[in-house]
Specification:
The protein is of the alpha+beta class. Helices cover 48% and strands 22% of the residues.
């Protein structure tokens, strides 16, 4: 994360070297006051369009580094143009180019930093600490250089910082979620997200109000008789106020979430604004700047965290761009405009009171809606395994030789899975974060959940039995003669309660696929299978997917819910027998019909579109990824089993573990079996 911290330092160093002097430069070049106002208003107005536009382009093309390099160069070139422009007519296009290129830099990098942090996303604020130091150190140095050699040097320092940024980007790893999925659908989801819209309205009110303080603080200091030296102390106090907040922000986010952090920010903004309206001595105004960290950085950290929480997979930069469009765009533009109108018509104290009222309105809106189930509210109340996690993480470090068949039990709110060859049945409780061994017996190839909540175990020799905790197995079938030398391998309950169960091959004899009807009748469906594996049903219940691992094929059948018959077999995908591709193993189907297939010796989960196109791969730190299921209250948690084949030394220290991730994708409850003894 060193390079990310260096980005924040160089970015804010460049900004602090130039921004305070722009209006002075414009005035020195003979630009009239109203036109200076237009030049000042252009960047935030353009930002509200450019930030989400460029960020969305980066997400849609997955070319984040290229976009950053182009925009960094464009920003430096635009500032070079601003340095030489002498008229309003020339300044307008170069200032517009500057704003167009600068706006998306922060959102794209913020998204990459959050992805790189993974489960440590709450540490985002600490990564920005060095950026908060830039104004305190570079700002005064830039001021001294510009005072000695001329204001042109403020432009040169900015250009130097951004040239270094470009060099940094060429070596910086830009972490993103691979394979941006359904960009248009994800964008539509973001735009329609009621919680996000409400959050952005609150940010607009708070940021708009706070722009009065940022814009007119020095004017207010002069009104109460401050000497010029005190103006620098005010800037230093603001920078010092950011340090403790950014250091403590991870704890604050973990404790109260993004929404609670925004509440703290709005309270600080209101205190600052009403305090500035009442202050009669310079030291009061300087003291109020110690709250700048909570006010400004608090809103920035809260917004970045919230945007990250609600962003669909692959649209992290887009969500950050939307937040930035309000935080650095329309909020500033409208706030500055309203503040100037109120101050000109009435007075500075009245302006600060109006701005403070806007922050209080935002706080009221946030608190009134506080009971709604939005992303940040859920986040602070959920255990760590339920939070959005783009990368797989171990939740049960069990050395399973062949971990398989995970299923979420909606009655018990736990996930069950098996270690096939040793016949062990495990369960994991996401609330406590604990796992336990709950049964050990014959090899278990797979299981389903019965209508009454019991588990239907499909075991070796073709045996099928019902397991209830604390009771002996209740056998439905004790042995299938044709399977006496082998075992079941993967099973699934169908919409009508039947069970489809496949077997392993036995020597030169191929594997089989059976259907167990609800009355216990067993029917052989397929007898020429390489190795029977994962199955799933399409959301319309008219088709069934079926995996033959040895034939490297996922098949698609027509499915008749009334009779249970499978017809019209054709390939859904044929996986090339190439190094690194691995072998198709267990699977599940999500609410939109996407097929999630585990890859044995492929180190990944593969996300297929309903038409069979591969959309993306989710990499795992172990080679043998065996199966996946959805679970949790909203079925957005993904639980993934892996295998060590009894050799962690070769397969890796995490092989055989149960993994969790949450990509924001929604699954569906698995069907229950209705086998009657």
């Amino acid at each position: 994360m060193l390079k990310a911290r260096l980005f924040y330092f160089l970015y804010f160093a460049g900004m602090s070297s130039l921004m305070p002097y722009l209006a002075v430069v414009y005035q020195a070049r003979g630009v009239p006051g109203p036109q200076i106002g237009i030049l000042t208003a252009l960047p935030p107005l353009i930002t509200m369009v450019a930030a989400p536009l460029w960020s969305g382009l980066a997400d849609a093309t997955n070319r984040h580094k290229l976009v950053l390099l182009v925009l960094t160069g464009g920003t430096a070139a635009a500032v070079a143009g601003m340095a030489s422009a002498q008229s309003f007519a020339v300044l307008v296009p170069v200032v517009a180019l500057y704003a167009l290129c600068l706006a998306p830099l922060m959102p794209i990098v913020d998204s990459a930093v959050l992805t790189a942090l993974g489960d440590r996303r709450d540490d985002y604020g600490r990564q920005r600490i060095i950026g908060s130091l830039a104004p305190a150190f570079v700002g005064p140095a830039a001021s001294a250089i510009s005072g000695r050699f001329g204001l042109q040097w403020s432009f040169y320092i900015f250009i130097g910082c951004f040239v270094l940024l470009g060099a940094l980007f060429t070596t910086m790893r830009i972490d993103t979620v691979e394979g941006s999925t359904h960009f248009s659908a994800g964008l539509n989801s973001l735009v329609r997200d009621v919680g996000l819209r409400r959050f952005l309205i609150v940010v607009f009110l708070g940021r708009g109000g706070y722009s009065a303080s940022i814009t007119y603080l020095y004017v207010r200091l002069e009104e109460v008789g401050a000497n010029p030296a005190l103006l620098g102390f005010a800037l230093t106090a603001g920078a010092l106020g950011e340090m403790p907040f950014l250091l403590l922000s991870p704890r604050l986010l973990k404790r109260v979430g993004a929404r609670g952090t925004l509440v703290c920010s709005l309270i600080a903004i209101a205190v600052i604004l009403f305090g500035e309206s009442l202050a009669r001595a310079p030291w009061m105004l300087v003291a109020l700047q110690l709250l700048h960290g909570t006010a400004f950085s608090g809103m920035a950290v809260a917004g970045v965290a919230y945007a990250d929480e609600v962003a669909p997979p692959g649209l992290g930069a887009t969500a950050q761009g939307m937040f930035n469009a309000v935080f650095s765009g329309i909020g500033i533009a409208v706030g500055a405009l309203v503040s100037s109108i109120v101050r000109d018509r009435w007075s500075s104290p009245v302006m600060f009171q109006v701005a403070g009222t806007a922050a209080v309105l935002g706080l009221g809106l946030l608190l009134v809606r506080g009971r709604d189930r939005d992303a940040s509210n859920c986040r602070q109340n959920l255990p760590s395994s339920r939070r959005r996690t783009m990368e797989p993480r171990v939740i049960a470090n069990v050395d399973c030789a062949t971990g398989e068949g995970p299923l979420w039990h909606p009655d018990e709110k736990v996930v069950y899975w098996v270690d096939i060859p040793v016949g062990r049945l495990y369960r994991y409780d996401p609330v406590t974060g604990e796992h336990e061994l709950c049964f050990e017996g014959p090899a278990i190839g797979g299981f389903t959940i019965q209508e009454d909540g019991a588990l239907l175990l499909c075991m070796d020799r073709g045996a099928i039995a019902i397991w209830r905790e604390g009771q002996p197995l209740d056998y439905i079938i004790e042995e299938i003669p044709a399977e006496a030398g082998t075992r079941f391998n993967d099973v699934i309950a169908g919409p009508a309660g039947r069970v489809y169960c496949g077997t392993m091959p036995d020597g030169n004899r191929p594997a089989h696929l059976y259907r167990l009807d609800t009355d216990g009748t067993l029917t052989l469906l397929q007898d020429d299978i390489g190795l029977s594996n994962g199955m799933g049903f399409t959301p319309d219940r008219k088709q069934m997917l079926y995996t033959d691992t040895r034939k490297q094929t996922i098949w698609l059948f027509g499915y008749d819910e009334t009779t249970g018959a499978l017809t019209n077999q054709r390939p859904f995908d044929v996986i090339p027998a190439e190094p690194g591709e691995g072998h198709p193993d267990g699977m599940t189907v999500d609410a939109e019909g996407h097929v999630w297939s585990a890859r044995w010796d492929g180190n990944c989960l593969v996300d297929y579109a309903p038409d069979g196109r591969q959309l993306r791969r989710i990499a795992f730190p172990v080679p043998k990824v065996s199966c996946v299921t959805f679970g949790g209250e909203d079925y957005t948690d993904m639980y993934v089993t892996t295998a060590s084949v009894g050799n962690r030394a070769a397969e890796g220290p995490l092989a055989g573990s149960l993994f969790h991730l949450n990509l924001g994708v929604t699954g569906v409850p698995e069907f229950r079996s209705r086998i009657v003894i």
